[in-house]
Amino acid sequence: MSASIGYRRDDEGELWIESVPLRDIAQRFGTPCYVYSRHAIEVRWDAYREALRGRGSLCYAVKANGTLAILSLLAQRGAGFDIVSGGELARVLRAGGDPARIVFSGVGKTVKEIRRALLAGIRCFNVESAAELERIEGIAAESANPAPIALRINPDIDPQTHPYIATGLAQSKFGIALDEAEALYQHAAASPHLTVEGVAFHIGSQLLSVAPLREAAERTAALVRTLHERGITMGHVDVGGGLGVRYVDEEPPDPQNHIAAVAAPLSDLGVELLVEPGRAIVAEAGALLTRVEYLKQSAGRDLVIVDAGMNDYLRPALYDAAHRIEPLITRDDEPIRDREVVGPICESSDLFARHCPLAVAPGDVLAIRCTGAYGAAMASQYNGRPRAPEVLVDGAQAHLIRRRETIDDLMRGESVLVGG
To answer: pTM higher than 0.85 for the full model?
Structure first.
């Protein structure tokens, strides 16, 4: 999919989002500021829905971007949701999501979170360990309400992505080894407090090849056949998400290729597919707007110091991730130079780009593209910095969907020590 959906440059070289100049967003809401194209989100969602074509359900991965307006937008389009915490459950319910379309993943579900999700009536718990299965069974016994479960298996497959976002290798903290799964399924099937709904896998994120996904589906299909022979039937196979996007020059598969790769090995099993796209839905729809504060020469480095930092957008510091960075308005009165774009945070890792050709001056606003996923969702208040606002553009309308935090917000809930 093209990263240009929802964005364009006019004849004068100015960057627009849908029918709004990004310059207007920066002037109205200040910088740093996240902005998203509703049209781009809907196009990507509809592409996945078309690729699935009635073979299953889409459960948006809330961790990618859990802003209420985006969750509400997707809920209105019939989305299910993949959550990893009680906080994400509360967000989905507040946004109008159907609890019967929620799957709960994650390795560290607490007693309180499990009880809340069971009471809400979620579709399924994706269980990540024998200990978690025992905990869920005990809680379900107390409530007299059987818990719907699927085991998240670990197929031990290299997803060919950054190690921090690889989740399907044997040494990963995620999932249950294939050779342990059958015994746990037999226990679950015999328990009056558990209902076996399916099986799940998720091997990693920002995947640029469908081959590892196909291999994971093949190994999962073999497990399902074995379980069927033992009289344990699966209603669904949750194939996770993880499809990559184009940050700079990557060429990721499209949703059609993604669905085809995982569906083929499972096609004769009579199971529903659950697919959990997150990044692939929202990443390319978003941009982080940031203003140039200073230009600085230092030891041969040509630095552009901006007002956004790693607290606003962590991926470059965490993964050494690369992004397209471009001015909102192109200049012809400044030379294009190979520059480093850095933020104000007191960390040397606070760097957005090492080699970025830019013609800029102080006061110019830049767009860090493809930041709709794992941007605002991972933001912090490090260095005493209020988190940035979020704006959703719908045609010619710009809606503030999360206000900028204030200094008072930074200290809310805290107290000073009185009396020494």
So the answer is: yes
